[in-house]
Design brief:
Layout (H helix, E strand, L loop, with lengths): L3 H16 L3 H9 L3 H6 L1 H13 L3 H18 L2 H18 L2 H17 L3 H17 L3 H18 L2 H18 L2 H18 L2 H18 L2 H18 L2 H18 L2 H18 L2 H17 L3 H18 L2 H16 L16
């Protein structure tokens, strides 16, 4: 029979591995544990779920988090329920199940406030803000992000602060407020560099690259995408790696390098499908649709455009859908123009 020290030793090992960003090792250690350990310690399943989420195993994370939530409920463990609900909400967001995500995250936030858990309240607020922002409730999202950020900074939580500044950078970029986006990204990078985790550094580099693409700073975009790609591989982050490919495709499309845009877009599309990341899949389909249209492959472009629109509508992402439709119509109107060839020399949390 497995003894209590075995539970504690495994818990300490998993926390050490997750804290060091060695997520695949943490997941492997959990899966190698005796069934009795898993059955008696839903907190370990939750740690494994967090590790699975970090490497882009959305399905595995969802199964583990849901199992942990059921176990915590069976025990009447409110603290465990709070943490499991937050992760269940994150998984639902990645899968594109927005009503489920919002319900779970709101439940996590309610319990965090009841239990006076400031850090978990900040996490749930940050995650809820992402739901609000995606669905166009921008003032609500900004309030939630800023509230989470204030808590993270009081706690000295570098990862939480970096992730929230990154999310603020996305919000400001999509609003066209380049200065605020730039400032948020610099803060995200400052906190991420202190934290030092490869997956977090990759996230911040991705944010800075996308801002560079949007503002025409090709030099920054190129450098940051190279860095993000290396870091995502180091962190074994499949979603991050697919995000890098999406941005490479977008950058190439803006520069008129259609072969690169098509190849990177197709690879990102396959990776997003494998990960089960709904928003990423819709965004990749949008980039690929525009690249295919620019290349004169109209029927294929229409197919990808429909996929993107359906994805955005399922997510409630009306602003992203509207932007795609505007770009599609503008490009469709000028599709008879010859596409530029070759490179143009040039120069977010």
């Amino acid at each position: 029979m497995v003894t209590t020290p075995s539970f504690d030793e495994l818990a300490a090992r998993l926390r050490e591995l997750v804290g060091a960003g060695r997520f695949s090792e943490a997941l492997a250690a959990f899966r190698a544990a005796p069934p009795a350990v898993v059955a008696h310690r839903p907190d370990l399943a939750l740690l494994a779920a967090a590790a699975a989420m970090r490497i882009g195993d959305v399905e595995g994370a969802g199964s583990l988090a849901s199992g942990a939530l059921a176990a915590f409920r069976g025990r009447g463990d409110l603290d465990g329920q709070m943490r499991a609900l937050n992760l269940v909400g994150v998984v639902a967001f990645e899968r594109g199940r927005m009503a489920e995500a919002e319900k779970a995250l709101a439940g996590a936030l309610r319990l965090a406030r009841e239990l006076d858990d400031v850090q978990l309240a900040a996490r749930a607020s940050n995650n809820l803000a992402s739901v609000s922002h995606l669905q166009g409730r921008v003032p609500e999202a900004l309030d939630l992000y800023r509230g989470a950020l204030a808590s993270y900074e009081r706690l000295g939580d570098r990862r939480g602060a970096a992730e929230t500044y990154h999310n603020l950078g996305i919000a400001f970029r999509q609003m066209g407020d380049w200065r605020a986006a730039h400032d948020a990204i610099l803060e995200a990078r400052r906190h991420a560099e202190v934290a030092g985790a490869p997956d977090l550094l990759a996230l911040v580099a991705i944010g800075r690259a996308e801002l560079g693409i949007e503002t025409g700073d090709e030099a920054v975009a190129t450098v940051e995408l190279e860095r993000a790609g290396q870091l995502a591989v180091e962190a074994e982050d499949e979603i991050g790696a697919a995000e890098v490919r999406r941005l490479r495709a977008l950058a190439a499309l803006r520069q008129g390098r259609l072969e690169v845009a098509l190849s990177e877009g197709a690879a990102a599309h396959r990776e997003a499908e494998r990960c089960g990341a709904a928003l990423l899949r819709a965004e990749v389909a949008a980039v690929l649709a525009l690249a295919l249209l620019r290349a004169g492959r109209v029927a294929e472009g229409e197919e990808r455009r429909r996929e993107a629109v359906e994805g955005y509508r399922a997510l409630g992402a009306a602003l992203l859908e509207s932007r795609l439709e505007q770009e599609w119509k503008a490009l469709f109107a000028t599709r008879a123009s010859p596409a530029p060839r070759g490179d143009r020399k040039s120069g977010l949390n």
